[in-house]
Design brief:
It is built from 4 helices and 7 strands. It is α/β, with parallel strands linked by helices.
Length: about 140
Amino acid sequence: MTERFYVPSEGPDVEALNIALYSASILANKFESELILVVPALKHATSTVLNQCIKETALKKLSKGEVLRYQDVPIRMVSMKTLNPYRDNGVLLALWAGENMLSKIDESPNAKGVVALRWSGNDVESWAKKHGAKELPTKQST
């Protein structure tokens, strides 16, 4: 059974992103699996708030498909376009998730875990309610 979590946030929230990254890495460590960052588009990943949480050189390598290590787990990055639901079955970190991204992630039958980070709207909360995902609180949400 896939473990699901979500982090409520609004816009470019570095604290929420750090919580999501760290929580996903703990989950990946628990399942001895890789951590897969799912972003809307690879070409824009280096110019997002991600560059405040992951070093720029590492972020560039990730956006080019390299596998690195984060908190002792393998980490790589895919986009909505390159996400393969039958191959990408580690712990999926849905960054700035919306309905389309979450629907595509739901097609991954063997995902070990999913952590969804909202950008805006209520798509993540609707997904969380549907799947019984647990909220990972931030200072702003408590």
